[in-house]
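Tutorial, part two.
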Amino acid sequence: MGIVLNQSIKNTVITYFGFGIGAINALFLYTNFLGKTHYGMVAFLLSAANIMMPLMAFGVHSTLIRFYSKCNSEEEREKFLSFMLVMPLLLIVPISAITYFCYDQIAFFILRKNPEISPFLWLIPIIGICMGYFEVYYAWVKVHMKSVFGNFISEVVVRIVVMILLFAVHWDWIEKDTFIYALSGAYGLQLVAMKTYAMYIKAPVLKFHIPHNIKEIVGYSFFIILSGSVAVLLMDFDKVMIPLYIKIENNAVYSVAIFIATVIAVPSRAMLQIIYPITAKLMNENKHEELDDLYKKSAINLQVFGGLVMLGIFLNIQELYKLIPGDYTGGVIVVFIIGLTKFYDVILGNNNAIILNTKYYRMVLFFGLLLVFMMIVLNMILIPPYGIVGSAWATLISVMVYNTIKLVFVVKKMKLYPFTSNTAKSFGIIIAVFLAFYFWDFPFQPIVNIVLKSVLITLVYVVANYKMAVSAEVNQVIRKYIKK
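Running the prediction step on this input gives:
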């Protein structure tokens, strides 16, 4: 876990720095400078583009990681990387053509409730392509065990550009509509930065050659497209469906709540950047015991970090909403519902990476497609009577069922177990801290209350985890800093 812990800590710092910028954007600048209507449109466009991303990438971002370690020579690796750069075009070209010729029909379905989105629909595939090729180049550097700078580009660069654009709106340098167009340029800049870094790490020697295992590669890529679409749909399709039933302003309230809850998954995102390629390598080398050890360590470490973040959010949520401009308090219950959804994702460790690298990966796809259908149906049923809260419940139910199926699959088929006695200890600490701090607040200004309460929560939580030895890695880091 040395390289994992080292790069995970760096990635966590970078990711939280990016989330700090994102928090300023999402909670204060968007809400204050852009307004609910345009904020809702931005949320819709980015969610729709994110849904298209697995198609635009042709699953290459995962296929590259899985098959790169199987290449036995430098020449074979160069041919493989060259082929990976071309593969996404096999879907980008036909999808772009369909979008161009069927634009009016697609627009008619989307614009029935919110016609103000009309001028911006064409940006969805553009942003989707930028997102897709960004992931391809990010995978390029991951296989060389260089995830930190790519994570900086992913988490920080776009958010800084967005912040600058939002201030440009506030100072009347650009119009709100112009901001939305410029936003797509930010994702183009992100792609250029990632490509430049990838070429620096490993400049391609273009040797177009169809790999001998092309059938296996394409089959796996199609699976990644479908399974990736399932994961993205579970995360983003609610923000696409909400404008189909209620006014798009509700998307702004929902997006604020989703952003707050998503912070819980930051430790997971940071650690899994480096764990994914290590998981693929261990599975390719059939090192079952090491893989099981990695599975358990990733699960408990992410539960410890994710639990602390979740407590910080849940126990300060009322004070936090007092700081957000405008009336966004309708999203408080959404934060709790989606927060639990994210926490269930976190505690499964590298579960998803294991599934994507087994010979059984196709079996999971069927369940994923059923769950997407279930999520769509639940949103159709729950959004009209309950609005954004109904959409949050639809997401929680769908993700819990989907994750439980994946967990059982890994346990039954791979004989890998993520949970230990320390898992129960961690849950006990989380529940105890929540009950101890939920029912009181300091009688000061909201920022002061949040800081003071967060410090107390962190101290109690860290000491409890250290004394009960929940995570050996976390205790090792704490002892290191105590010695210093």
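The chain has a mean pLDDT of 81. In part three we will examine how such features are distributed along the chain.
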